[in-house]
Design brief:
- The protein is globular.
- The strands form two sheets. The protein has a seven-stranded parallel beta sheet with strand order 3-4-5-6-7-8-9.
- It is of the alpha/beta class.
- It has helices at residues 78-92, 108-118, 137-144, 157-163, 168-184, 201-219, 246-255, 275-284; strands spanning 5-8, 13-16, 61-63, 98-103, 126-131, 148-154, 188-194, 224-229, 264-268.
- The chain has a single domain (42-284), classed as Aldolase class I (TIM Barrel, Alpha-Beta Barrel).
- The chain contains eight helices and nine strands.
- Helix 1 (78-92) packs parallel to helix 2 and helix 5 runs parallel beside helix 6 (201-219).
- Strand 1 (5-8) and strand 2 (13-16) form a beta hairpin.
Amino acid sequence: MEKELQFNHRTNTLEQRVYKYQLQDVKEPNLYRHLYSYDEAPKIPFNHRHVPMRPPAEIWITDSTFRDGQQAREPYTVEQIVHLYKLLHKLGGPKGIIRQTEFFLYSKKDKEAVERCLALGYKYPEITSWIRAVKDDFQLVKAMGLKETGILASCSDYHIFKKLKMTRRQAMEQFLSIIKAALEIGIIPRVHLEDITRADFYGFVVPFAIELNKLSEESGIPIKIRACDTMGFGVSYPGVALPRSVPGIIYGLWHHAGFPSERLEWHGHNDFYRAVVNAGTAWLYGCAA
């Protein structure tokens, strides 16, 4: 019974943790059609459950200018990338308010841009990469000498069933095998939970995050999670139900999955003009980046 009670040094209270969330390997996808129908605006449901704010001791920005930033315009040239990287370094200052930025590694131009930015010798923003959940891609990361990479891990049933053509268990097992491969060669995995605001949070996201935390503890390597609001469906209102609740998502990742703030990131898209307010909300509820 002692393990069911844990003392929280932040709140100075005993907390009860009896229930552990396990993967719900459903036969049919949960597409949340009652929220996201094709002939009406997306609905915002409330269950009036409020979670505590928990601002981290330190907050920072992780930048995706050289990845997402190229998806809505003509791709940058190498010279433009180097110039923008210098500006990010200047803007973030010596304390690294802009802590990291991420790059593709696939084309000759991608690799040249990374090499030239690395040659500048800046501590911040740290250069990281983004790869698919494919083992061969880790060789690209290792060859470039990078310490950390983002790994795409689709977590909604839209992506698992419709795109990957897998079950939840198959998807989780594949993602975990890829992440183990990264750990074996000493690379810090930053797991991008794609489409989290259409995912079964307690049936897939939290069980997956719990497994990631176990791997982190076993390996001694700080696996990170980036919660990706791919469709921009996240909302900041208190009392909103999952999967649309930004406070609920961040709370669940640190409270139920055990991820500390410094290993949590929010990545919100701006389809419904909520990118800024949702990022601020994620900070307030326990996300460091």
